[in-house]
Every structure is written in C-alpha cells, then in structure tokens.
Amino acid sequence: MRENIGENQRVEKMKRVRFTIIGRVQGVGFRWYVEEKARKLGLNGFVRNIPDGDVMVMVEGSEDNIRKLEIYLWKGPAFASVENVIKQEEEYKGDLREFYISF
User: Which residue in 64, 67, 55, 36 sits closest to 102, CA to CA?
Assistant: First the structure.
C-alpha cells in the first residue's frame, strides 16, 4: 500500500558530505564554531584538524541543513580566514549519531 504525501509535506533525502576547509582555520576556534552550528542545525558527524593545516568536516543530514552549514563554513569564526571550501558528496550511511569534535 502506498502512502500519499500531500502538497505541503515533503520527504527530504538524507545526504552525507565531506567538506575540506582551506585557509587560516586552525588555532582560531574553527572546530568549536562548526560543532555549535552543526548541532543547532540537527546534523550528525564530526570536525577535525588535518595535518596540512586545513579542517575536515564529515556531516550527515538533510540537504537543506547541510547547505546552511556550508554557508557557515565559508564565513568561519571571527579570526578565521577561509580561502576555499571543497565539497564532496558521499554515499549516505546513517552511521553518525551526533556531532562532535574529533581529536
């Protein structure tokens, strides 16, 4: 039996995206900034520094909320200077249960 979905209801597909943030993004509170924004948006995943000086974010959630997070990533916290945000879509796995800072 198929369930009808009304015009005002929409089923949003869940996505998984890896972001690499390039610029002055380490030592400026970037990971804590991302954690706060992602949690407020109800996203799951993690953020971590990577050895080359960039920051990596792995996130799962609705396409709309991931898009909102991407806007925050381009802005960054006060002392950050974001030069580029690389977005790579991955296969949704549903294995991320919360958002946290990975050390």
Answer: 55
Question: Per residue in 10-27, pLDDT tens?
Answer: 557 899 999 999 999 999
Residues 6+ apart with CB under 8 A from 94: 14, 60
Please provide residue 4's backbone torsions phi and psi, each rounded to the nearest 5 degrees.
-80, 140
* Catalytic center residues: 31, 49
Nearest to 49 by CA among 22, 84, 9: 22
CATH number belonging to the domain at 14-101, selected among 1.10.630.10, 3.40.80.10, 2.40.50.100, 3.30.70.100: 3.30.70.100
